[in-house]
Amino acid sequence: MIDRQFRRVEQLRAHEYVAEQIRRQIALRLIRSGEALPPERELAKVFGVGRATVQHALRLLEADRLVETRRGRSGGTFVVGPADDRVDADYLLLDLRRDRERIEEALDYRRIVEPAVAETAAVMRTGQELDAIREASRRAADAEDDTEFMAYDTRFHLVIADASHNRFFYEAIEKLRLVLNGALVVLPESPLWRERSANEHAELLGAIEAQGGEAARKAMLTHLDHTHKSVTALLSALSRRLSP
Fold first, then answer.
1. DSSP 156-223
2. Whether the predicted model's global pTM rises above the 0.70 cut
3. At 189, phi and psi to the nearest 5?
4. I need a labelling partner for 179 at 20 to 30 A (CA). Which of 27, 84, 157, 185 fits?
5. 164 & 90 share domain
């Protein structure tokens, strides 16, 4: 009877671990379409593995059509972008319709967890971590399009989570971004939306600079509430389009 409560443990081999880490960075859009991965030697150093392990990992990603290798002087391993943006967007909208309940649950969970993350980060952050938050905020504010903004917006939220010095907070924010980024990507492009978000980032950054925990909590909640409303409106519109 007791055996039914347990499952066999599947150990990831080193190359699978490397591939999964890169796959996650791509899913989070921290590495954007068309962007080159670091050289194999650098990846091997980062992951603490041999180049053969990195090469094996890259072959897995190539098989999944996530990256491609280009030869020549400007060659390297590049993230593969969609061949047709319109078709890709159509598939993404279908995924959002299918995952609506999960996305709504993620939004509710985010409003509870991420303000606590910001409050903790404001108190615990180091000077180096504060620099990373500032840099992500600046790069998001200077973004020229939504794709670039999304990459640095994701980084902004992740470096704040990292500054909390709590691995469970970081894992929660990473998982939330994996669930929500698809919905955030298809929100209507708007310079005003990016400007509002950048202003909210600045407010949050100011609270973290001052190590004001409660102010950081409130600033994060205000920021999340605007995103919550936008994504909920998007999901409602998709639901109406799906209805006969």
1. HHHHHHHHTT-HHHHHHHHHHHHHHHHHHHTSPP-HHHHHHHHHHHHHHHHHHHTT-HHHHHHHHHHH
2. yes
3. -65, 135
4. 84
5. yes
